[in-house]
UniProtKB/TrEMBL annotation:
This is Carbohydrate ABC transporter permease. It is a multi-pass membrane protein. The chain crosses the membrane at residues 6-25, 37-57, 69-90, 99-121, 133-154, 175-197, 236-254. InterPro entries: MetI-like, MetI-like_sf.
């Protein structure tokens, strides 16, 4: 089992390692030592940070990072807020059409995005949100999987806890903010990470919904390094490293909560 795990880890880590090494090479050295494979294939001879410097001095990559962070963080904040409120209603309230509505929520994360891309574009265009932050954020706020995770957690909360708060005169908003939400830290972290990574890795929708460089995000910006006459491989590798490292830095310290949040909200019905 250790041998198998080492092999799998190597297959996962090696592409990232090669990307890091290639991002530290001059452009002319990227594939100079690939064939035949030698020690210099994996160790740069002329180490340079020119690719990273060029990203922020020549490519306006700071704006791209800002856009990506802003869109991701806003999606997390609004997605957790609306998703948890919807889940609380599904878990603790009784109303007509509840089962049908929740079934539709489940369908939303089972249908491939490609199926709804064109109708979604038409809807966003009607609102005038093409090439705006609204067009990038709002369609991702309502996430069916987030609602599902919160609902499964809320179903395990004893009704007596809520009834006690109601008897003490607490409003439903007070119960939601002061009683329920503080108890679901693992689920909130899990949902937040899923929303953040989903937006951070999003390519198709930002490509469709934006036209100018003003709102370009990191996955779309990678296409800028392939020009008519050449491909700027060292800068592309540098962007790839940044695009991978940031989610990893978020996921690693929160991994325990992420696993706990998912495992504690399994299907119990």
């Amino acid at each position: 089992m250790y041998i198998v795990q080492i092999i799998v880890a190597f297959l996962i880590v090696f592409p990232l390692f090669f990307a890091v090494i290639s991002s530290l090479r001059p452009l002319n050295d990227i594939y100079k030592y690939v064939s035949p494979v030698t020690l210099y294939t994996f160790l740069p001879i002329n180490t340079t940070f020119d690719a990273y410097v060029a990203l922020f001095t020549e490519r306006n990559f700071g704006k791209v990072l800002y856009n990506t962070f802003y869109v991701s963080i806003m999606t997390v904040l609004f997605g957790i807020g609306f998703g948890s409120m919807a889940a609380f209603a599904f878990a603790k309230f009784q109303f007509k059409g509840k089962a049908l509505l929740f079934g539709l929520v489940l369908l939303t994360f089972m249908i491939p995005f490609e199926v709804i891309a064109i109708p979604l574009y038409g809807l966003v265009k009607v609102f005038g949100w093409i090439d705006t932050y609204y067009g990038l954020i709002v369609p991702a706020v309502a996430n069916g999987l987030v609602i599902f995770l919160y609902r499964q957690f809320f179903l395990d909360l004893p009704d007596s806890l809520i009834e006690s708060a109601r008897m003490d005169g607490a409003s439903w908003w007070k119960i939601y903010t002061a009683v329920v939400m503080p108890l679901c830290k693992p689920v909130t972290i899990s949902a937040g990470l899923m929303l953040f990574i989903s937006q951070w890795e999003s390519f198709m929708w930002p490509l469709i919904a934006t036209r100018s460089k003003e709102y370009k995000v990191i996955q779309v910006a990678m296409s800028d390094f392939t020009t008519e006459h050449a491909t700027l491989w060292n800068e592309m590798y540098a962007v790839s490293v940044i695009a991978v490292i940031i989610p990893i830095l978020l996921l690693l310290p929160l991994q325990r909560y992420f696993i706990q949040g998912v495992t504690n909200t399994g299907i119990k019905e």
